[in-house]
Structures are given as structure tokens and as C-alpha cells.
Amino acid sequence: MNIYIAPFNDFKKGEIEFLKSSLSKIFGSVKVLPKLKVPQSAYNFFRRQYNASLLLENLPIFKDGITLGITSLDIYADNLNFIFGLAEIKGKRALISTYRLDPTFYGESFDKDLYYLRIIKEALHEIGHVLGLPHCENKTCVMSFSNSIFEVDRKSPFYCENCLKKLNIF
């Protein structure tokens, strides 16, 4: 399976390289696409956030894999104050935002290891949705729903045994 990383913003080289390296160990081939332009229509002036669905719709589709969009913008979905990511269930595209994964967002010192761990957790979570996984009741499974950064930190960067069985690709 191919994973295509599609950055919407400028990222430090290390962030994208970490994501590429980590995902390639799990899924095989990972390619980084050129930076995408953020559609102006995605910005909600009143919320001061970006509509995740509109960003997701702007990701390219590849027959041979999954496109993972990554942005440093603050994103939202209908009826939610914010989200860490969004995916097309059993589709071809997923999106994650690093905006609220950065410890400095919460007034903490920057911790590169923690930040990168949060990024890979959310990437695996959204890719799991594309592969057909629902949210998992196991709070330590990467497919557990995260409504706060505390819930992101509580889960592991791994699919639980039940989710692995459902994936049937490992």
C-alpha cells in the first residue's frame, strides 16, 4: 500500500521526514507530495479556523494508496469546536492538523518527542478510518476517540489486537 503525504503548509523538514519514516515502517511505500495551496473558501472568519472537510476535498486521490494531508492550521468539523483530524471512512483521503498537537499550544515547553508522538498517533488514527476502522473502546488503542490532548496522550501509537484483526493487512 502507498501512503502519499500532502502538506498544506510549510513544515520543518524533520516533521515530514519523521512522518514518512514512521509510516513507511508500517505501511511500506510513503511518498511526499509538493506543498498544496490552502483554499481560501476553507477559512471560516467567525471561527478563525479552517473547515477540515474542505481541506480534505482538496487532497488528490490515488488509486494505489491513501493520501494523508497534514496542516499546521486549526481545523474544525461541524458541531465540534476543533478536531485533530478527519478521514473518509473506507475512502482514499485523511487529514491531520498539528496545530493543537504542539505542546506550546497548551503553554508548555516545546517537547519534540512528545510532539512527534502525537503526530504519528493522529496519522495512524485517521489512516485507520480510511482502512475502515471505527473508533475503538480500548482507551489505549490508537483508534480511541480523542476529544482532548489528554486523550491523545493516553492512547498508544499502536492498533490494539481487535483493530489489527479487523484490518487484516498486517
Explain the overall architecture:
By secondary structure, the protein is an alpha/beta fold. The chain has a single domain (2-132), classed as 3-Layer(aba) Sandwich (Collagenase (Catalytic Domain)), CATH 3.40.390. Helices cover 31% and strands 18% of the residues. The chain has 5 helices and 8 strands. It has helices at 13-27, 52-57, 112-130, 149-154, 161-167; strands at residues 2-7, 30-32, 43-44, 49-51, 65-71, 75-76, 85-87, 93-97. The strands form 2 sheets. A 5-stranded mixed β-sheet has the order 2-1-5-8-7. A hairpin with a 5-residue loop joins strand 7 and strand 8.
Provide the fold topology.
Elements: E1 2-7, H1 13-27, E2 30-32, E3 43-44, E4 49-51, H2 52-57, E5 65-71, E6 75-76, E7 85-87, E8 93-97, H3 112-130, H4 149-154, H5 161-167
Parallel strand pairs: 1-2, 1-5, 4-6, 5-8
Antiparallel strand pairs: 3-4, 7-8
Helix pairs in contact: 1-3
Record field, number of beta strands: 8
Level-1 CATH class name = Alpha Beta
In N-to-C order, the SSE pattern is EHEEEHEEEEHHH
Shape: globular
Largest sheet: 5 strands, mixed
Provide the CATH topology: Collagenase (Catalytic Domain)
**Mean pLDDT across all amino acids:** 95
What is the count of DSSP helices, taking H or I runs of 4+ residues? 5
Distance between the termini: 11 Å
How helical, in percent, are the residues? 25-40%
Question: Uncertain regions: pLDDT < 50 for 5+ in a row?
Answer: none
Strand content: 15-25%
CATH architectural category: 3-Layer(aba) Sandwich
What structural class should be given to the helix and strand makeup?
alpha/beta
Overall number of domains = 1
- Strand arrangement, major sheet: 2-1-5-8-7
Radius of gyration: 15 Å
- Supply the CATH superfamily name: Collagenase (Catalytic Domain)
